[in-house]
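Might you be able to consider the sequence and fold that I enclose below?
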Amino acid sequence: MRLTALYSPSQNGVAERMNRMLGELARAMLDDQDLPEFLWEYAISHAAYVRNRAYTKSLGTLTPYQGWFNKKPNIAHLREFGAPVWILLQGQKEQCKMLPKSKRRIYVGYNDGSNSVKYYNAETRKVLPSRNFKNIQRPMNTKPPEPMIVTPDVLHEGESGADHMPQLGRTPGAERSSASDESRK
């Protein structure tokens, strides 16, 4: 082991290159998924997680994980940073029967040792862990589905605007009876 002087990063080129590479990977992941900049910590952590499970030239046929733990890493659980993840809603005070039981969130990493993921909730701008999640992936080389727009106020063929939706505070026959009362006078 070689020691370096304090506050002299130029003496430790290997660590500086690794830090620069992790920063560039994190920047690319955030930019690719159009995620906010404050998620940089999770992006760097994910980049290091993946990097430790990839082969390196200096270790030959080993990964850094294999060198440290003496076993091959399981990479079946790896997902793309920023990919959609469905989180089961739990602990709600009022569970409505017709509301969805899960919500789509953004995957930002793993919790080591607990078989849970970290996800970003854009509504609250928080990163939370969840053990109850599902990754749904589209088949390769397919385009994402086009968004469906539902407009309930559009009139269909044969409908007129006045008869379609009754207005609040009025009964359907009230206009007719008041008009007939005025004609009698």
